## 1
Amino acid sequence: MPDSVFTVTDLKSGYDDKPVLQGVDFEVRPGEILAITGRNGVGKSTLMKTLIGLIPVKEGTLHFRGEAVQHLPAHKRARLGIGYVPQGRDVFPRMTVSENLTVGAMAVRRPDPGDLQRIFEYFPILAEKLNQKAGVLSGGQQQQLAIARALVARPQLLLMDEPSEGIQPNVAQDIARIMLRLRQDMGLSIVLVEQNVDMICSVAERVYVMEKGRIVAKFEPEGRLEPDVLRGYLAI
Amino acid sequence: METGYLAFAMVMQFADAFAFLVLAACGLAIVFGMMGIVNLAHGEFIMCGAYVTVAAVHAGVPLPLAIAIGAIASALAGMVVEFACIRHLYGRPLDSIVLTWGISLVVTQTTLITLGSNMPSIGTPYGSFAVGPYSYSVYRLVLFGSALAVLAGLYIVFNWTRFGIAARATMQVPHMAAASGLDTRRIYSWTFAIGAGLAGLAGGLYAPTMTLVPTMGTSFMTEAFVTVVVGGADVILGTAPAAAILAIIKAGMTYWKGQLFGQIGLLIAVIVVIRILPKGISGFLTRQ
């Protein structure tokens, strides 16, 4: 599959006695930002956790650059090049910014010291706060740290779960701009789970809408995504 | 001059108590803090270290090397126990308490059946020194120095090494440690081995000073538990200050009214601390 970085086929997963995903299919192309949206509780975060390996796959397959990964544990998927920026950021709170980034870099065998410098070009604030505990940073700074922690592992695919949640609108705009630069500079593919329509429309080429554990609608416009059209759909 | 001698005796009393609390507790604290497992078989890892140390000394191995062998033997035993039992019960803290209690009973009784009710002891080495009218065993200084060395070693391992950083990340947000590429299972397995190894080290260090019986682990357990409860989940920020505070209480009470009151003092201290600092000293220091 040359033009797919990540292919999800008939994915089913959930918790012990509560199925959440009921068969999800999509593929992510190289250098693409694919947004997945939907109301609360439709299974978006479960989808992301299943993709990175924190929730086991019950049925279906995941192919990352042609390799089946649905049976691999999370740490092996991370080492293959799938980065994860979780909802709520989940930085290591009692560790310094620098230590958080060290942990992120543990997924790569031979870390390149230049990587960190390049990442500080996107997130200069982190360079200033290297020795502060991550738990005392603001929400927006923690979000930047969570993204940077995933990036130091040099992923080819980044899974981002609601990066705009709980941070100020202007910081969310900065993050959207950084996502576009990352795609441009590194050829990164991104799966973005998001409810913020402005953020979706400023970065994503395609938008899939989830409902009750399934993808129920696909917006794949030729040109720019129109926020009003998407908003209209989500309001129904 | 008289008060000077007495003061030195008090300091030695404190150093004894501090060393015992730190050495008895740090393995328990690491396993509890990093993995959330209350290891009721901790005392049996101490016993294992003591027995192996004494057996090695009887076989002609010099004491320091024998202690190291005892610690390594306990660490290996810990790895086996983790692989065979503990790892199947992660995330089930109550079940793991029952499990480790069971291991403790099985090990104690098996030792009793196979090795008998006691083992010939080896005697305290290195002689003694006198300060004024009082005489002290040099080995007491060795124990105090070992406790400080263990704390320093743990500080270095958990702050300056890759393993330590990975272990702290795993303790703080396990799912993100895994999603960042860390094999958290392997980290837990090593952590448990380190905890068991430290227990074995405590057993080996105290082996020359006590009678070796299969139930000797229990004489460490009260002190170890009291220290971990007062200290909380963090070894450096919890166990060390808790041991210092409890050592003052224990040494003071022992000096005032004798051994029994030293023990009572410790237990009262725990009750007070649970009441005002439910997450222990380190929970208070790292609160957000």
## 2
Amino acid sequence: MRIEIKMVLVLTVIALISGLVLGLAYEETSPKIEKNLELAKGKALKKVVPNVASYEAKQVDRYTTIFTAKDSSGNIAGYGVLIEGSGFQGPIKLMVGFDTTMTKLTGLEVIENIETPGLGNRITEEWFKKQFVGRVPPIEVVKGKKPVNEHEIQAITGATISSRSVVRIVNTAQSKLLSSLPRASYSPPKSHGQAAQKQNEGEKKAAVSAARTHRKIEKRKRVREEKSVSLAERKPEKPDTTCLKYMSEFVSPIRRCRTIPMPDSLDAFLACRGSGDSIIGVIVRGTGFMDRIKLLVAMDAGDFRIIGIKILEMAEGEAFGNGRDSTFWSQFNGRTPPLALKSDDRPNGIDAISGATETSEAVITIINMAKIRAEKALSEIQS
Amino acid sequence: MKKAFVNGLVKENPVLVGLLGLCSVLAVSNTAINSVFMAAAVTFVLVFSSLIISIIRKIIPDQVRIPSFIVVIATFVTIADLFLKAYFPEISKNLGPFVPLIVVNCIILARQEAFASKNPVHYALADALGMSIGYSWVIILLGIVRELLGFGTIFGHRVLGAWFHPFVVMLLPPGAFITLGVMVGTMRWIQAKASKS
């Protein structure tokens, strides 16, 4: 036989046999491998959300899967977000548990990490994970002192970057969760629900969201009216210079301005324009790619449309994430959080700064928090 | 045949003398249990590859011998990987890419090229077993030493008491290099002494 033919023939036969053997081996092992993966996910979900009987998974993007956990009677027990982000040495994969309102953490499990053993690797330790239970994102890392506020976490000594990475991923998990599922707490009143049930799935969704929007608008109108009245009725007092300093950038002329002290000393400001509508400004902090980001976000106190954003502190990489790019920041104006990055299934999302997706994501997370804080601040002055 | 088996244990130990396949030796020997599974995977691949290559050695044309070896090796590596994933998911996660990377482990290819493709089946098997055991004892010893100094445990059981402060460096790549260096040095020293006397 000619050597060329023999070469081809022998190699082909070897490859064919190899393929056959591998096919059989795959056939034999793949159901078990799938089962292992499913089991691992289910196990992790049960660890972070209490009373899970069943769950539905929904992949949001390449790095994120959202699990809607249900208890034995079919009610929503909470949400789990399986999410991957970058750590110090490589990717960190977490399962983050949220309560039914998506605001409070119910648990945290580290699924995968290749952080430095003995240092960053300690993110898998019980005491570190336990810290997250009951916290309200966006969370922040504190060093060298005991965390006192509901959004603070103690860093691991010698592993600040890994600790921060976990916190950043947890915060991202919440913004992904908020932007991808309808909030349970905003479910429509029963009559709407019953009427909608007769319609098909798509119409139902539309009806629900319309009802929700309607209700929100009504509520906000009420809030706005109450607020402007209460503000107008107040006696003139000494001008609040701190408030004026921060808010004059967004509102002019300012009729009234007052500082709303917040428990964690990140204050909020309520300014009143001549026409009677109020603007709320909140200072929000969060973790960016390199270091802390601190923003002042001004929103309409009625419908929380963003009016302007001012960067107070930001030390991202010079080339990309320093993020002073005005086209990026102007995208937020006129929109209501929660917002998310643009993707295939979210064409009207925010365009990331190219080369600085992490930073852009961090900024969006912080801005989404701003709305939650604004709501909190408004309820503070009402009480 | 006995000579073929004994060769790999110490005298021509693939790791300590040949300094082959160091990538996996250094990377996964941070705990004893990881080392044991890595050793088992390498043994499985080496023994079966040598067996098959030795059987078909006469029909493989010289020009395509390397691709043929690789296909055979890759087949067994994939089987080992799938098996670990299905039955030992935790271990498989710890070993990460280092099981698939056995394909390019030079110990395996070197034994096919230097031995299995030139010797009858029983010799090839003896050689593969010897080399596997040679690889295994080194990586397992390395794993035990690193786990002991890095965690204070052996196979997950606490050996050193609370007084012990773990050397984190032993779990990192430098720890692997240091330990392996000490082992290679000790080995050379013993050999030098033996040849003198």
